[in-house]
Amino acid sequence: MSKITTELLLERAVPKSTRLRKIETLNLSKLQLKTGDLDPRLFSRLRHLQKLDLSDNLLDKFPNSLTLPDLRVLNCNNNQLEDVTALKQFPLLEELTYENNVYLTTNDDYKVMFLLQNLRLLNGKDITKLANHVRHVNSRKLTSKVTAHWEKFFRDQLPEKHTVEQVKSIKKKFLKSVQTNVVYGPSSLSEFTRWRVKMIAEEFLASSLGLEENTDPKTEEEIDENEEESAESPTEVVEDISQVKLTPSKRKRNNSTPSSGNKRSKSQANTEEETALKPLHFLQCHSKGNSREDFKTQLWSCVFEPLLDSGSRKDPTVSSSRTVATCGGEAVCLIDCETGIVLKKYKVATEEFFSVAWTTVTMVIGDNRKKTHNILAAAGRRGIVKLIHVAADFCYGEIKAHKKPIATICFSPTHETHLFTASYDKRIALWDIGIPDCDYNFKASQLLVLEAISIPLRIALVPTCPDQYLLAGCEEGCFTWNIKLDKGQKNRPFEAVFQFPDDEGNVTTSHRVDGLAFLNDDVIVSKSSKTGCIFVWSWSRSFDGKGKASQRTISAVILAELEWSSTDMSYLTLSTCPAKEYVFCGDETGSVWMYNLSNHTTSWSTAKGKRSDKRIPPTQILKWPELRANGEQLAEIIINNVVTDPTFTYLVALTSVNITAIWKKS
């Protein structure tokens, strides 16, 4: 039942009233109101309301049909507003305040200045001069740029006699392209610019070309969603978001082939189907100084953002969005995989980022109100962890974790504030990053230090006991540590080192392990000592945890070997998609090797499961398409990292040439 009734409105009127239509001033502050409490049918009776106070409530947006035709003054301070575009329904508004709404940014200020033509005061400041610039000068500049973009790139694409489908296609392509490529003003206003560009482009198509008819509702809905999600990120160095989209010269329907030189058995051919993947985007968005000539910046890490409303962080089929965080060079980017739009970008000019990781925390917003938010951690060469509240576009803190570079980081799946950092100082530290309060004050503390004998490159928590054991692939071996916090020792040596077969048929513990991931609760995939292969091995059958001596040497129980590139190039890491039982690893030629192991995991799970005698070939190899930049074909593409979302809808590959490649499962 709504908190707002006729009686309440009459009681809260200033002065009190006996008729709704006579109310001119209304105070509805401090009532814990949510958006659903604003009943349009009831508010439509406030025909003469001029002043409305909704401060100190829980509103996250405005309904689109409140129908307050005479509203002149509106106070929305201290709410949880995330969008201001619905305020356009109050065209006579002259004074507006919405301070202390943590999700609103300068971009929203510019939006209301454009939407509300009579607005004079915004958050207590006279904005008359600036608003006129936004409504007129800014609009003229953007209109000119939008028109020029059409003339240069799209006018000749539309045939003189065109079909409805051709109209739909050209409109979709133009709207997407113009929002990506038309820039104006400071990067801190890029979200507002994209919003206005889209609006101007639609008006241009409708008025000049008559392309407003037969609009595909689905396309419009997708574009709207993209626009709402787009936002400029916090930047220590404010620059434009620069991204170059590179289009493959030739695109085949299925841009993948089975492994060359390895004929599959009939059983494999019948039971393992190739996954149809189509290339969506090839983005150059980590350039140093936003240079379009930068094809040297190495990209290292990417992780999909978890969904806030997934209901359970443990369910892999619902725990991720289509937004992926990528890092390399001086930048961290958030990319919408479907549209290819760089939603946010964070830059530190003196940094080279090596790793990113997500966690979801419950923050106290104010008045003891709680809300879950995603926090992105990023770290690299400076040994500092940056903590970014993505929804608020705010880097709220940093942890000086190590004096040497941080190779990789990961959050605990059971303790959302526990962060592991693995450094070139040959230590892995466990931090409690704390939860920021409403003023973004937080306290980080170091809980553990795990001593390694060489640089840790990849780390993974054991799924069946993530609070007890951590596994690390290092420059000189694969190690495990006991990380239980109830033990008194803060600095700990490794508990065991695993030995693997090498090229000479012997076993070794001294080898570089530059790829490490769990395929399921027990099966581990690692890339290390043996040329041309990836090991698949069992955690439970290799390590029982009952040995009392530390620094034991243990033979890894190998379940299978996956056939991979014969390159001796290091640091080409691998990843897994546990829900689909897939393994992925890039190579030195720009290809992605994909292994569907669903036909093998059942036999491996039995206590007496036998090792696969023959190397398992890839289910398919996703070939790099022919790309051209400045008229020249890009060469020597190395895939440093490849990751899919948990449902294997999108595949993202990071390269040595500053290109983020995105494929989508057909």
Q: How many domains?
A: 3
Write down the Rg: 28 Å
Number of strands: 41
> How confident is the prediction overall: mean pLDDT?
84
Shape: globular
Helix content: 10-25%
CATH-defined topology of the largest domain: Methylamine Dehydrogenase, Chain H
Number of helices: 10
In terms of per-residue confidence, which ranges show pLDDT below 50 for 5 or more consecutive residues?
212-242, 249-271, 310-318
CATH class of the largest domain: Mainly Beta
Largest sheet: 6 strands, mixed
Content-based structural category = alpha+beta
Subcellular location: Chromosome, Centromere, Kinetochore; Chromosome, Telomere; Cytoplasm, Cytoskeleton, Microtubule organizing center, Centrosome; Nucleus
Organism: Crypturellus soui
Keywords: Centromere, Chromatin regulator, Chromosome, Cytoplasm, Cytoskeleton, DNA replication, Kinetochore, Leucine-rich repeat, Nucleus, Repeat, Telomere, WD repeat
GO cellular component, one term: chromosome, telomeric region
